[in-house]
Specification:
Layout lengths: L7 E2 L3 E10 L2 E8 L4 E8 L7 H16 L12 E7 L2 E6 L7 H8 L4 H20 L2 E2 L8 E4 L2 E4 L6 E2 L20 H4 L6 H17 L9 H10 L12 H7 L10 H22 L3 E8 L14 E8 L28 H4 L2 E5 L5 E5 L8 E4 L5 E4 L3 E7 L4 E5 L2 E2 L8 E7 L1
Antiparallel strand pairs: 1-2, 2-3, 3-4, 4-6, 5-6, 7-10, 8-9, 11-12, 13-16, 13-18, 14-15, 14-17, 17-20, 18-19
Helix pairs in contact: 3-5, 3-8, 5-7, 7-8
Length: 422
């Protein structure tokens, strides 16, 4: 038995055996002798060239940020029990889940079916929504940090996570995260945000359906160069997942899918095989046409009306310019609606008049944002903060009122930035 395997942390967590190693440390099977239960224990490995001051910062951040997920209660996030410092290193004590991770599954079975990847993505998105609402950014989403315990999908390893106000070590030159899955803005030195986690989710789902991440080039520098200078290659096996992947892997974080839109597209991808089967089955409706026949049908010798019954193919999805039965004439995409009454009383009102209306609204100086995402056609958003910065994407698809004044529409695909000071 090695010296480490005889180690007892904080007089209660005994190391039993090594489970695996990664770039950031070693994961051990352990036993909590106080509560008599099995646990997983991650031993974090510090970069060897940290100064003493940086080492203290690392300890403090690890203690603060690894404890933060312990407040998150969802089956899709591994439960963190404790963090201790022993032998000059931080150790994270958490729920033991004896299940393969997504990386192992890909290596063993190859690319996964799109519908299964959509199920995995949907649960991971729920986990991120819970974390982001609590101000926690994961920063290291990748297949090896996704455990698959039957139908349960669990996001683990919040060792790099931080919340608003967290100290980071980028100033000391240490790259934090996995290059093949890191968002381009984070690789360029910008602060991680919920949008950067969504990029990493997209790269993880891409790897699951294609068997490899979109920008992996075999070494760190080549991978980061591809991330900065190339577009992600189209996924060949994505099928109904293609809109999810392309939306999450937008290099501009403001154009990336929001949580809500990503959830909607994942739901569609999960149901796509059933929908396809339904659409492949011809469907008909009975059309009854009653007409008065003016001429006498000589063969029958009667002068009466004839009832003509026929089978007419039913189209449940009207094409462009068509309206479904009972819906009336189609509305032009840019047809203006009534001026919203809220426009007079609020600094900013945005209403979608097309399918590509997207907005990013934040309060200057705030670490968060008021809104970041797509608006469904007809949806209206009202903002009350007296000072706002807003970026409108595709100004032809959005109607915007600033202090009661409607802004002039732009060309399709045009972007506009607004500064509002009440």
């Amino acid at each position: 038995m090695s010296q480490s395997e005889r180690l007892v942390l904080a007089t209660r967590y005994r190391l039993v055996s090594e489970i695996g190693q990664g770039a950031n440390g070693t994961v051990w099977r352990g036993h909590d002798e106080l509560l008599d239960r099995a646990v997983a224990i991650k031993e974090l490995r510090l970069p060897p060239d940290l100064s003493e001051e940086e080492r203290v910062v690392f300890y403090r951040r690890t203690l603060r940020e690894a404890r933060a997920p312990a407040q998150l209660r969802t089956p899709s996030i591994v439960e963190v029990y404790d963090v201790v410092i022993e032998q000059g290193r931080p150790w994270i004590v958490m729920e033991l889940i004896e299940a393969p991770n997504l990386e192992q599954l890909i290596e063993t079975n190859g690319p996964l079916p799109p519908e299964r990847v959509a199920h995995i993505g949907r649960q991971l998105l729920d986990a991120l929504a819970v974390a982001h609402r609590s101000g926690i950014i994961h920063r290291d989403i990748k297949p090896s940090n996704v455990l698959l315990d039957g139908d349960r999908v669990v996001l683990t390893d919040f060792g790099l996570a931080f919340s608003s106000g967290a100290t980071n070590l980028t100033k000391s030159g240490h790259f934090m995260g996995s290059p093949a899955y890191v968002a381009p803005e984070v690789a360029a030195g910008e602060r991680a945000t919920p949008q950067s986690d969504l990029w990493s989710l997209g790269a993880t789902l891409y790897a699951a359906v294609e068997g490899r991440p979109p920008f992996d080039r075999g070494n760190v520098m080549a991978t980061l160069s591809a991330l900065a200078n190339e577009e992600p290659p189209p996924a060949q096996n994505a099928g109904p997942l293609a809109p999810v992947l392309s939306g999450l892997l937008q290099k501009n974080p403001l154009r990336r899918l929001s949580h809500a839109r990503a959830a909607d597209r994942l739901e569609r991808a999960m149901s796509a095989p059933r929908s396809a089967r339904r659409q492949a089955t011809p469907r008909y409706r009975l059309a009854v046409v009653v007409g008065l026949i003016a001429a006498t049908v000589a063969a029958c010798g009667v002068g009466t009306g004839a009832l003509v019954v026929g089978m007419v193919t039913r189209n449940d999805d009207p094409g462009p310019g068509q309206a479904a039965a009972g819906e009336g004439p189609p509305q032009s995409p840019g047809q203006p609606a009534a001026i919203p009454s809220a426009a007079v009383d609020h600094p900013l009102v945005i209403r979608a008049i097309g399918d590509t209306c997207r907005a990013f609204v934040t309060e200057p100086g705030s670490l968060g944002y008021e809104f970041n995402g797509d608006l469904a056609k007809g949806e209206e958003r009202i903002f009350d903060k007296p000072r706002l910065t807003a970026v409108i994407y595709d100004t032809a698809a959005c109607e915007v009122w600033v202090k009661g004044v409607k802004q002039p529409p732009g060309k399709p695909g045009a972007r506009k930035q607004l500064q509002i000071n009440k």
